[in-house]
Q: What sequence folds into this?
């Protein structure tokens, strides 16, 4: 058979988040290590079986992880910062979870146990976004004198484990160059890539052991090959894979690239002495011609044609039109998803409440395996061999393309009528701020929070009881009102100036809006890992977006009725809703974003009409949505900023628009941040000790800023003193008249026990610094 169905990775959380449940139970001390390992082994076995049953011939192993595959790699190569070494051997679970989440026993993100911060507790490693996904990895930390040694046999063990179950798998590991390109060092100016020579022997050791265990192919992921690279970085690939070719005989490497086009790195990739190359033909279908033209005859190509990042059924007949000529021209070929299926929900069959018509348009990870198998069979045995499956697929694709559900003429007419004035506030900031100050009468350095307060187990339980029908609407509403009222009163008591309602009614800042907007569908079990045990259920944008009714006004009105202080209206912005959803692929993303922008604009205006003096429009994902290639940045930033402005610009001068962004490395996009023209922006700056403010200073940013003084990603309670110091630092960089005082981000993942003292300290710090302003 010339064509083979291959997979690059499968979600590890389990169809019902079994891994999350087990890991959190282990952290809380409710189950022991043996029970955790048992659950994990069971999940792996089921995942391999699922792929085999679907007809996948190349099944991955080592795609399982207890937290993150980059952290796994750090442990594998022994890059354990000295801080964590006293906690156990390099491959112990204790060290692993300490690197992932720090060692505070009483207040870890997901832990419910009680106690006090022990002496010698260590912080978690830094975490950041995996390329342009909503998945987060643990940033490897290396030092100039870093030594590496093979410190975990997980990849080998899991290969052997699969073999014992009758699966001859292709282990997957993260490649050495991408690993070092993602790594950071605390020593300024030190380039982690210079550690490559010391890292390669560890990879050779591992690969040799895999080979000895019986592996013939290994998938080695090098997604960095789709980024802008300089010559030294490109040369690193040649060096690394040259060493592998010299030192390993008989073991074949499938070099996997994904999330974009190889572009100007194509020649580099094609020249590497590897046996196979995987390319992403969903994100970058156009690269196929250059890849085919440049690939040696004996380079096994793996064509990523099934979208690993989205949930739409593929158009199998159209794919076959493209693939048949390639298959007949090449001796052998693999057909694969574009990237690991990690980013897709597990199984559509678990969805019982989706509109059946819409459900017919979708494929989750399990269904994508079926698509791969169907394509492969059609290529090997002819389309007739899978005629029924192809006909059903064609019917589903045609149904979606022709469906009135995806089109709303009113939305399209309205969008066509949008003119530039709609994206422009009536007056310039200098005028607006006068009107706002008169209206709001706030002290200097006003204090506020980013929106959410702790999503306690009680809040989650009430919501799930309501979802199941065990708690009626009135009971659920009463519960939420009570939570909200207590939170509003408490903020007032401790002296916060601009209040929030706490977001208790929201399951998630994106999903909540998805559930209220038309053109969106949402799943029951469509969980995707975001970081560690935390998951999200991205809504599915299938059609034109509109807002049937106000979404947040009643909760805002209730919260404002409890206080005379300004209550912020709290909304998620269009770019963030877009970036954290599964988006329709039948029109440009920017068009979908504009539709969302108009819907949120209406909500902003409704909040204003109801009396809101401040409306916050979160754009947490605007920065992370930057395209991977710099050449594509400006186009994205242009429409993203326009969408934000379209959302915000309808209000009167006196209505203050806030925005919030979590990731604050704004140096390169500060023009666009400025162009958003929010009256106030709150950002994440506490960990960087305010250094991230320099972008704003250099730009002479004129509007107001709330640089975060409280690191909410850590359960640590910041002292008044340290927040004062941060505020003084900030006021040395910017005019105190511009400054707000707030945490880095929302408080939903924290516990009340930590939030209470931390915010009291924050208000004290603001008061102390205010007093020095005179
Ligand atoms: N979409 C999105 N992306 C984001 C963020 C974000 O807030 N949203 N923040 C950044 C960091 N990412 C995060 C991602 C997830 C979570 C998180 O807390 N997720 C929760 C789930 C949130 C949720 O959807 N909650 C639902 C469902 C809760 C739930 O699990 N219910 C149980 C039952 C609960 C019970 O009875 O006790 C069930 O459905 O089975 C709700 O509150 O209604 C989790 O994994 O635990 C936090 C941060 C970046 N990306
Ligand atoms: Zn945030």
A:
């Amino acid at each position: 058979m010339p064509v083979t169905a291959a997979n690059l990775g499968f979600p590890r959380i389990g169809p019902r988040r079994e891994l999350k449940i087990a890991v959190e139970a282990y952290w809380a001390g409710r189950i022991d290590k043996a029970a955790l390992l048992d659950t994990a082994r069971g999940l792996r076995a089921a995942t391999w079986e699922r792929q085999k049953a679907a007809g996948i011939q190349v099944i991955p192993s080592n795609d399982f992880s207890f937290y993150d595959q980059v952290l796994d790699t750090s442990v594998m190569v022994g890059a354990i910062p000295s801080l964590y070494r006293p906690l156990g051997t390099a491959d112990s679970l204790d060290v692993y979870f300490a690197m992932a989440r720090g060692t505070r026993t009483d207040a870890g993100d997901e832990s419910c146990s009680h106690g006090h911060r022990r002496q010698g507790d260590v912080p978690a490693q830094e975490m950041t976004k995996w390329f342009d996904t909503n998945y987060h990895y643990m940033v490897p930390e290396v030092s100039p004198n870093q030594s590496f040694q093979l410190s975990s046999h997980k990849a080998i063990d899991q290969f052997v484990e699969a073999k014992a179950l009758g699966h001859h798998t292709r282990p997957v590991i993260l490649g050495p160059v991408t690993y070092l390109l993602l790594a950071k060092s605390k020593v300024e100016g030190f380039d982690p890539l210079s550690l490559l020579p010391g890292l390669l022997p560890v990879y050779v050791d591992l690969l040799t052991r895999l080979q000895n265990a019986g592996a013939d192919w290994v998938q080695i992921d090098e997604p960095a090959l789709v980024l802008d690279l300089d010559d030294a970085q490109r040369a690193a690939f040649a060096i690394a894979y040259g060493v592998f070719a010299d030192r390993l005989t008989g073991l074949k490497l499938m070099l996997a690239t994904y999330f974009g086009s190889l572009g100007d790195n194509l020649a580099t990739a094609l020249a590497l002495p590897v046996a196979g190359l995987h390319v992403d033909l969903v994100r970058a279908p156009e690269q196929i011609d250059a890849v085919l033209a440049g690939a040696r005859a004996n380079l096994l190509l793996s064509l990523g044609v099934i979208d690993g990042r989205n949930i739409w059924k593929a158009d199998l007949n159209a794919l076959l039109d493209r693939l048949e000529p390639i298959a007949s021209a090449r001796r052998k070929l693999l057909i694969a998803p574009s990237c690991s299926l990690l980013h897709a929900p597990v199984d559509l069959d678990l969805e019982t409440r989706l509109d059946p018509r819409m459900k017919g348009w979708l494929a989750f990870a399990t269904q994508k395996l079926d698509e791969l198998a169907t394509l492969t069979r059609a290529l090997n045995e002819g389309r007739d061999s899978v005629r029924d499956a192809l006909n059903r697929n064609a019917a589903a694709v045609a149904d979606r393309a022709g469906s009135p559900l995806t089109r709303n003429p009113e939305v399209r007419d309205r969008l066509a009528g949008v003119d530039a004035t709609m994206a422009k506030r009536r007056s310039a900031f200098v005028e607006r701020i006068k009107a706002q100050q008169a209206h709001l009468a706030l002290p200097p350095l006003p204090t506020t929070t980013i929106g959410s307060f702790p999503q306690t187990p009680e809040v989650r339980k009430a919501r799930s009881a309501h979802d199941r029908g065990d708690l009626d609407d009135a009971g659920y509403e009463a519960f939420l009102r009570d939570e909200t009222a207590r939170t509003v009163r408490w903020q007032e008591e401790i002296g916060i100036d601009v209040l929030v309602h706490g977001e208790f009614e929201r399951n998630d800042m994106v999903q909540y809006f998805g559930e209220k907007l038309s053109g969106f569908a949402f799943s029951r079990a469509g969980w995707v890992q975001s970081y560690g045990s935390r998951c999200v259920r991205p809504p599915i944008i299938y059609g034109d977006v509109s807002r049937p009714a106000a979404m947040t006004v009643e909760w805002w009105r209730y919260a404002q009725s409890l206080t005379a202080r300004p209550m912020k209206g709290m909304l998620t912005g269009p770019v963030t809703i877009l970036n954290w959803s599964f988006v329709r692929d039948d029109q440009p993303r920017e068009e979908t974003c504009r539709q969302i922008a108009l819907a949120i604009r209406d909500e902003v205006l409704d909040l204003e009409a109801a009396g809101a003096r401040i409306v916050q429009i979160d754009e947490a994902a605007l920065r992370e949505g930057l395209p991977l290639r710099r050449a594509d940045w400006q186009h994205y930033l242009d429409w993203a900023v326009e969408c934000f402005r379209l959302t915000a610009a309808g209000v009167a001068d006196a209505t203050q628009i806030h925005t919030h962004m979590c990731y604050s490395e704004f140096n390169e996009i500060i023009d666009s941040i400025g162009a958003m023209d929010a009256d106030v922006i709150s950002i994440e700056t506490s960990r960087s000790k305010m250094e991230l403010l320099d972008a704003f200073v250099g730009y002479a940013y004129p509007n107001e800023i709330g640089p975060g003084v409280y690191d909410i990603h850590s359960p640590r309670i910041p002292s008044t003193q340290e927040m004062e110091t941060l505020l003084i630092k900030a006021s040395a960089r910017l005019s105190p008249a511009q400054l707000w005082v707030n945490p880095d981000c929302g408080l939903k993942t924290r516990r009340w026990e930590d939030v209470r003292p931390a915010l009291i300290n924050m208000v004290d710090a603001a008061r102390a610094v205010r007093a020095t302003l005179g």
Summary: The CA atoms of residues 316 and 322 lie 10 Å apart. The pocket of 39S (ligand 1) is lined by residues 134, 455, 457, 460-461, 463-464, 507-510, 530-531, 534-537, 580, 749 (CB under 6 Å). The radius of gyration is 26 Å. The chain has 27 helices and 20 strands.
